């Protein structure tokens, strides 16, 4: 399979458990351990991680962010929000963890039993499973899985141009590493205005802090996803004048060791499988980075794909359709949730700004049983990711 971030290592772990020989190819020369942003694991992903024996390390490396300080444009002063109550309303089991930490934990779960090939990528795939690599010798595989993210090379080779399957939300996300002293452990400081918001946070085990930027654009921005100087230019233009503190974070973009920038894009493929090839996680059904619970969805998708292959004794003609049937409604719900979240999280008016901050403040102020009961009344909203069903495959396969 291609990709060693989240879905790839989880899928590799479960396939190995079911008796399959697994090779994971990753373009990067090693696991990415610098930069990145915090991601959320909700109840289903937590339970899967527990079955993998990975939960203690995940909980140990949780960010511990429990307080949000929001300064809204035009407001008299900042608002403090207790995030523990917000998370409790959204999920019965939840952890926020840095994406790179999570990737390393999942990789370590089966690294001695799975072949990892770093510094290479797939350049061609034949219908019979013959794979040509950019650097390594050609090989033949029974099955090929694209777990290589939103800009999946496997998806491009098999399904064609990315633009045919992508739906832009008109919003963009950027993350950069900034000096540790700009953030505080356990706290996120946020500045929010119409069409844009920026925040900084850190965690006790990090040697730096992370600045996160979300913004809308009235037009699709012109840049290549590997053109970092252009991306930094667009980011600085989008946040000019929001707040002096944000200006200080932006100045760090000139010397940051790590930088991430991308559109909030939703993939909308009718099917994720073709012949011996299938897609998992963001490569197949990214609901939208930062707004759609894509990490938990990737963990669940990898677990389901491995389980269906085990039930079908490796017969992809049975397993792939079953995998898609199991995931179809979950993916559809995540897409709908992400579209609504993108609108709510990046308000387009001052009314929306007040509603966003006021709603979060109210949820945090309510007694936990009441806020949780309100959230549970709608499993298509705040509790969507907690309500995803986990099929038990543990007695499948060899």
Low-confidence stretches: none
CATH class bucket of the domain at 7-62 and 94-165 and 266-344 and 381-387: Alpha Beta
Q: Helix proportion of residues, in percent?
A: 25-40%
**What do we call the CATH topology of the domain at 7-62 and 94-165 and 266-344 and 381-387?**
FAD/NAD(P)-binding domain
So, CATH architecture of the domain at 7-62 and 94-165 and 266-344 and 381-387? 3-Layer(bba) Sandwich
| SSE arrangement, N to C | HEEHHEEHEHEEEEEHEEEEHHEEEHHHHH
What kind of oligomer do you see?
Answer: single chain
Overall mean pLDDT = 91
Q: Quick one: overall form?
A: globular
Name the beta content range.
15-25%
Count up the helices. 13
Radius of gyration: 21 Å
Question: Key features?
Answer:
398 residues; alpha+beta; FAD/NAD(P)-binding domain; seven-stranded mixed sheet; three-stranded antiparallel sheet
